[in-house]
């Protein structure tokens, strides 16, 4: 596509580093400032010196105008001509030279190149100094022209009255200005060199945080996500604020990468564990069918026993697949934040109902165990209203009861606590078993995790029960926690939010 004529041309990237560009810009600004200062100073100095020359020139001219043209240089003119190279010229009314006196033996440049100065021209200058070139053309003269008053001449010399022209060379002024300009240039060049060296170190030091940012970016590109930009300047500065923002961004990136790595590790572990769990019943089913196909089941009784085992393995496989599917739906609900993919039949209820049923379940599983019903942490049981799906919570409590019965020695006491604590409905399942270590406690709700991998699958289960229980409680906006320590048993605690006023009214009405 052709670029329109009004479209700005694409700029080529600069080949100079930022440090070099900043230094060049700074030195250029300093050089312009020094040059401008030098020009202003020399201009002002020349004006000042020229004004002093004019003051003396006017004084000399006024004295010379009151003296009649003598044959020799008048002493008064010689005494007042303190300007150095000075000439005094007397003119008649027609501008012709009648007398000329030089205070120097040889006027520089051959003397001033005077214009035609008749009586009218002298009056036109009105006694104001003006500048003329030298006859040699290498420098300038400052000139003043005045008419001589009539009272200076006696009556017999009245025809000699005319004008006087006093000229002073500006050679000394030019030399002073030139010397000052050269000195300014020399000092300015030396100062510019010193500032260039100092500016190089200053810019290098000032850009050191950016260098650290570059080094950090290089390290992160190489894979070191834990690298951070060192805080070399105050946080309220631009570079300090940039450093803080970059470190925050790097923290989030590092956290995201760690979370991604952990998620990938969990996914790999999930597929390995799921494959192992699914393979166990499938291998059993395949083994029994192979026996039947090879004719190793000669009697009807053998066939019936084999079919019973195949049905048991199929139920186990079906239950495992349903649990995995349930976890997948709960994960989708938690991740999307949209409409729940798992439909919960929420209704007002009291957790005391689940606690009483759990008490009977424990007695049915192990009648020899001592089972007690208390409040949370002990005491008397109390009401625990909630708005929940009773069937799903019953599934959670059943899982916790089965976990306590299976994973504790026979006869170990179990306590079920129910009530309200700090504005939340609580149901506890506590045992006095061996408890768990901190590492086991941190992973107890992970999928396919079992504290004892060596035990049989029939007692160890699939490792999904507590993960499902944790997800179901979270789906009710509650939380499932574990309080345990080695030798102190396990206490699983379900905490649900209390219902609002309308739900409490419904609960009271139904009661």
Account of the 3D structure:
The protein has three domains: 22-178, Beta-Lactamase (2-Layer Sandwich), CATH 3.30.450; 224-340, Helix Hairpins (Orthogonal Bundle), CATH 1.10.287; 347-510, Heat Shock Protein 90 (2-Layer Sandwich), CATH 3.30.565. Helices cover 52% and strands 14% of the residues. The protein has helices at residues 18-65, 75-80, 119-125, 171-206, 208-221, 238-293, 300-336, 351-365, 390-406, 438-443, 457-460, 465-475, 501-510; strands at residues 86-91, 97-102, 130-133, 140-147, 163-169, 347-350, 371-374, 385-388, 414-421, 424-431, 479-484, 490-497. Strands 2-1-5-4-3 form a five-stranded antiparallel beta sheet. It has a five-stranded mixed beta sheet with strand order 7-9-10-12-11. It has a two-stranded antiparallel sheet with strand order 6-8. β3 (130-133) and β4 form a beta hairpin. The longest helix has 56 residues, at 238-293.
């Amino acid at each position: 596509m052709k670029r329109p004529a009004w479209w700005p041309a694409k700029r080529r990237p600069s080949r100079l580093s930022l440090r070099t560009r900043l230094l060049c810009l700074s030195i250029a600004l300093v050089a312009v400032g020094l040059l401008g200062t030098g020009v202003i100073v020399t201009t002002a100095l020349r004006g000042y010196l020229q004004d002093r020359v004019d003051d003396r020139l006017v004084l000399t001219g006024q004295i010379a105008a009151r003296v009649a043209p003598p044959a020799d240089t008048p002493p008064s003119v010689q005494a007042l001509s303190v300007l150095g190279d000075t000439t005094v010229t007397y003119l008649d009314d027609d501008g012709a030279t009648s007398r000329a006196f030089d205070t120097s033996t040889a006027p520089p440049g051959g003397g001033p190149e005077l214009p035609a100065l008749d009586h009218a021209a002298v009056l036109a200058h009105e006694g104001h100094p003006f500048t003329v070139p030298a006859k040699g053309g290498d420098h300038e003269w400052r000139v003043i022209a005045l008419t001589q008053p009539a009272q200076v001449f006696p009556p017999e010399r009245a025809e000699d009255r005319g004008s006087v022209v006093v000229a002073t060379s500006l050679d000394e002024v030019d030399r002073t200005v030139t010397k000052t300009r050269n000195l300014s240039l020399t000092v300015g060049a030396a100062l510019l060199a010193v500032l260039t060296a100092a500016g190089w170190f200053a810019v290098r030091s000032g850009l050191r945080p950016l260098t650290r940012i570059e080094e950090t970016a290089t390290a992160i590109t190489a894979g070191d996500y834990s690298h951070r930009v060192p805080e070399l300047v105050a946080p309220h500065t631009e570079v300090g604020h940039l450093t803080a923002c970059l470190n925050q961004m790097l923290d989030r990136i590092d956290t995201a990468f760690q979370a991604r790595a952990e998620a990938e590790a969990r996914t790999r572990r999930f597929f390995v564990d799921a494959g192992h769990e699914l393979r166990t019943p499938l291998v059993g089913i395949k083994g029994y069918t192979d026996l039947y196909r090879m004719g190793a089941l000669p009697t009807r009784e053998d066939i019936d026993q084999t079919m019973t085992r195949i049905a048991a393995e199929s139920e186990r496989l079906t239950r495992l697949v349903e649990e995995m599917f349930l976890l997948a739906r709960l994960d989708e609900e938690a991740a999307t934040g949209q409409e729940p993919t798992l439909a919960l039949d929420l209704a007002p209820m009291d957790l005391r109902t689940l606690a009483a049923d759990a008490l009977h379940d424990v007695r049915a599983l192990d009648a020899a165990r001592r089972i007690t019903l208390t409040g949370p942490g002990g005491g008397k049981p109390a009401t625990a209203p909630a708005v929940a799906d009773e069937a799903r919570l019953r599934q959670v409590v059943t899982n916790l009861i089965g976990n306590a019965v299976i994973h504790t020695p026979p006869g170990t006491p179990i306590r079920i606590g129910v009530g309200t604590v700090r504005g939340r409905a609580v149901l506890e399942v506590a045992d006095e078993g061996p408890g768990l270590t901190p590492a086991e406690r941190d992973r107890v709700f992970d999928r396919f995790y079992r504290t004892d991998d060596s035990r049989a699958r029939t007692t160890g289960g699939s490792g999904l029960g507590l993960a499902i229980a944790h997800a179901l409680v979270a789906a009710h906006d509650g939380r499932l926690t574990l309080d345990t320590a080695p030798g102190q048993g396990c206490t699983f605690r379900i905490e649900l939010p209390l219902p609002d006023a309308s739900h409490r009214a419904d609960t009271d009405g139904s009661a």
